[in-house]
TrEMBL record:
Residues 72-101 are annotated as: Disordered. This is Uncharacterized protein. It comes from the Bacteria. Pfam families: YqhG (PF11079).
Amino acid sequence: MNAKQAQKFALAYLQATQCHIIEKSPYHVTVKLSPEADRALTNRPYYWNFVDRTGTEPETMTFRWNFAAPGETDNEAASGSAPTHASLFDPHPAAPASQTAPLLPNGVRVIQDDVYFGSRRLTQLFETIKQAGRCVTLFAEPSRGSGNPLGSQPYTAWLGANFKVSYECDMRREELYGIGISLATGVIDERFLARLRETKLTPRLPSNVHLLRNGLSLRKAMNQLESSLERRIKQSDFRWAEEAEERRLDELERVDQYYKPMIERSATQEQKDAISARYRQRASEIDWQYRPRVSLSVINCGIFHLPGIE
């Protein structure tokens, strides 16, 4: 990610969270955070707890974000070129990562941050958006000129989820599945993620649209998605698990051959107990490392309202 891309990402976040842009140039932006962004970025839980308890009008912080990395010139930032490795790891950068800028004319203090790929602030933006985007509600935008402008188009709610399946032993393989289920009919679409990529989505309900009644609860729909994915996993090739089990037994046999003679030759009960404890610890580590297992987790999910009924 170069400086131009980092700037575009940061500005998109500020716009999405309705922050107030005070000034902007190709190399920086001065912004007064919205309450939503301030809660997410400034680490002031006691202040926001006070605001919530007392109903006080919040005073959010003001930042100046510079989009040239330490050691990078404004010309390099404008051209979108990435900083050299030397500049990223320079022990004496031209400016610290965060510092206080001069006061604005109204006396508001401004905090400066460098925002570039690898910076603390951009990493925080990534994590904030990742957490905020774990559950979403979106609507498909109707195509222009489609349908009767005086009529109402039916939309069906779909529960879509991105699953991560991990095949683990002394090696690890991960697979991602984006599947969805109609909350009206229970139909499951195993290519739901690809379907969403081809659909323009909006967080607002479009005009001339009505939502059909759901026939499934969210809990039941998620259970059906998990069951469908479990059936699919059970049909996969599990030779890797058989091979991992063989390696586990081989390693445990080596551990037995090493520790058991030592235990038998122990001169005192204290030595025998100490060696036995190391033996059990090592056997437990081998078992955890090599024992084959499959884990299923949800990366993110959402309710997607799409045209028609299936």
